[in-house]
Amino acid sequence: MTEAAKEMPHNLVPGSLPDEVSEAVAELGLGRAIAYARGGGRPKRRQLTLYAFDDGAVFTDRRDRVVAAPYWDDVRSLLFDVNVLIDPQLNIGSVLHQFVRFLTFDIDDSAALGLELWDAPDRTLASDYATYGMREDLRHEFAPLVSVVRDRVAAAQMPRLRQEIMEGAEARFGPFTVSREGLRGNAALIPWSAKPLVFYGYQWNDTPPKGNRGLVTVRCGSVDGGPFSHGPELMRAWSAQVPNLRTLERLCDGMQSDPPFLSSEG
C-alpha cells in the first residue's frame, strides 16, 4: 500500500489496493472503490481493514489477506453505533471526547465481522458540553466509509423488504417491527397516518464506561426540525439493539408516501 494511502484513512487513491483485494474485486465484479478504514476487529480483537466498493465490501487482516468479500445483499444485518467516551479534565476546564464507531456485519454463510473505528480525541469546553451536548459532526474521520456502508446495505435490502411488506409480511429491526399497518415497538402500534419518525441521537450512560451512547427514538409529527420539535417520545431503544437502522428509516419514510414507497423509488 502506498504511503499516500496510509495518510488517507477514509479515501482510496490510485494504486492503493493490496494485490489480494484487487484480485477479489476483479473476480467478483465489485465495481468502483469508494472508501476504506482500518480498525479493531471482532472477534479476537484483531485488526481489520474494510474496503467499500459500489457493489460490495472486502475485509482484510493486518497482512492484507482477504478474510471476507461479501456483496451488499449478502449482509443480513448491519449494526451501527457510536459511543462517546468522556473524561472530565476539571483542572483545565475541558472535557476529552473520543468516538468509537461500531460496524458489525452478519453476513450470509459467515461468522459476524465487527469493526471498531476509534476517532482521535477532541477537546471542548466543559461549559459548551453542558449546554450543547456532544455532536457527532465534531469528528468526520470515518464518516465517508460509515455513510457509504449504511447506504449500500439499505439499498440492497429495500427491494425485498418493500415487496414483502406490501404483500402482508412484517420486517423486524430488533425491538421495532414494520408492517402495512404501522410501526410497532414497546408493545404499541403507531399507524402510518400518525407520521412516526425515527431519530438517531445520544443518551447519557451512567454505567461504565460513562459517556454518550447512540439512542433511537420515535416521535410523531410533521418534518420541521429535530426530534424535540415533534411530539413526545413514544418509543426508544439503544442503537446497538437496532440492526439495519438506515433501512428502518427508509421503510418508515416509504410507508408514509402516497402511494406507499413512491418517495423511495428514486
Descriptive report:
With 266 residues, this protein is an alpha+beta fold. It has helices at 3-6, 19-28, 126-132, 143-166, 245-255; strands at residues 33-42, 47-53, 57-60, 66-68, 75-89, 94-107, 113-118, 122-125, 171-173, 176-178, 182-185, 188-191, 196-205, 211-220, 235-238. Strands 1, 2, 3, 4, 5, 6, 7, 8, 13, 14 and 15 form an eleven-stranded antiparallel beta sheet that branches. Helix 4 packs across helix 5 (245-255). Residues 1-9 have low confidence and may be disordered.
Order of helices and strands: HHEEEEEEEEHHEEEEEEEH
**Oligomeric state of the chains?**
single chain
Based on helices, strands and strand pairing, what is the structural class? alpha+beta
For the report, how would you describe the main beta sheet? Answer: 11 strands, antiparallel
Percent helix, as a range, is 10-25%
Q: Report the total helices.
A: 5
Number of strands: 15
Coarse morphology: globular
Strand content: 35-45%
Radius of gyration: 20 Å
Poorly predicted ranges (pLDDT <50, ≥5 residues)? 1-9
| Chain-averaged pLDDT | 79
State the distance separating the first and last CA atoms: 37 Å
Which helices and strands occur, and which strands form pairs?
Elements: H1 3-6, H2 19-28, E1 33-42, E2 47-53, E3 57-60, E4 66-68, E5 75-89, E6 94-107, E7 113-118, E8 122-125, H3 126-132, H4 143-166, E9 171-173, E10 176-178, E11 182-185, E12 188-191, E13 196-205, E14 211-220, E15 235-238, H5 245-255
Antiparallel strand pairs: 1-2, 1-7, 2-3, 3-4, 5-6, 5-14, 6-7, 6-8, 9-10, 10-11, 11-12, 13-14, 14-15
